[in-house]
Each structure stands twice: as structure tokens, then as C-alpha cells.
Amino acid sequence: MTVERLKEILDKVLHQDDLKPVVDQQGHVLTTYCNIALDRILTLANLPRMISAKNVPIMANDMCDYMRDNTDKWTKVSGDVACARASQGVLVVACQKAKGHGHVCCVYPMTEEFSSSWGKPVPMVANIGKTVGIMRASQAFRTEPGYYSIKI
Asked: Which structural domains are found in the chain, ordered by start?
């Protein structure tokens, strides 16, 4: 797809109100929707979905495993390659497994920005989770995630 189409898809999903995190009265995040957001992005991009037998998006940890295990569809890449591929219009997913629930988000087609917490340039991501928006990967993940490019 073109880089313009990739940006259009990511921007559209970023602005969907039903994907904003659910918070309690004290401001604690109760529920996030990164897996649903990625499913919508895959659908809009006409790419294969990662769904259960009940036709619903699988959880983020399972999405990480799926991309790792399905090497015919996904390729593990470094952060700088992730950024370069996204800038060519290729869908790249940043993912990280965690106890309970992991996290997934897409690399946004922009140049890398320096992360003082990680001490190096990192990809920008279209994050839908505890925070929603375009941000450095280091703002969406505590430690560096894995990056998976759709097979080109």
C-alpha cells in the first residue's frame, strides 16, 4: 500500500472513540483495546486478521505469538528496519508479551525520534492503549518491543 494509505488507516483508527481506554473515577486504566485496534487496521488494509474460532480478535499476547510463529506472513525486523518499512507503506507491528495482557501497536510512517529513556532513536508508533496517539515506541512500551513486518 502507499505510505499515504497507511497513514490514513492508522489515523482513522486512532480517532475511534470506542477504542479509548476505560478508566475508573480515580483515573486508573481498567480496559484497553490494542488488539481490537490492530484487527481494525488489518481489516482496513485488506490483510489477514488474527482472530479466534469465534471470529473475534485474539489477545495481544496471542498476536505476538502468531506473528512470531507465522513466518510465511510476518518477518521479525529491527527498529530501524521497522521504521524504514513503515515509511514505504508496509504495515509493521510493535508487540510485547506480558503477564496477563501484552501490547501491540503499529509503527507510524515517520522518521525515528531519540528516546532519552532508551538512549537511542526509536520508531514512532500509532498507540492505542493506556495512552492514545502517535508517540515514540519508548512511550508505549517499558522496554523495547519486537517488531514484525507483514511479509513483502
From this structure: 3-150 (3.90.1720.10)
